[in-house]
Design goal:
The chain has helices at residues 6-26, 32-39, 41-54, 59-76, 83-105. The protein is built from 5 helices and no strands. The radius of gyration is 17 Å and the shape is flat.
Amino acid sequence: MKKMNLLTIGVALVFLVAAIIVLGDLLNYLKASNIFGQYWPIVLVFIGVFAFSASPKSNSFAFGLIALGLLFTLRNLGVFASQSGDIIFIVLLCLAGLAMLVMSTEKKPSE
């Protein structure tokens, strides 16, 4: 039997949850556009957490997904609602990208 890694399981669970939300929308139990409209970046956070737990060696990729998901979620919730908030959002995106670059170019002790 083939061993599945944690990242594959995590992504599969994200798809299953999305399918359940869409089914709930079709059955008129909830409004999928409300959930997907504001909270879709949480999917990036979950994939980042699963990527980190599946392979701690890919920590820059996981950090990037988690940071991007959190920043977009905060923006969708109106935390960066003003013009100065947009500037802060852009600065935080740049800092997250720079941190990913630094983390990915660092030499590992085993290299």
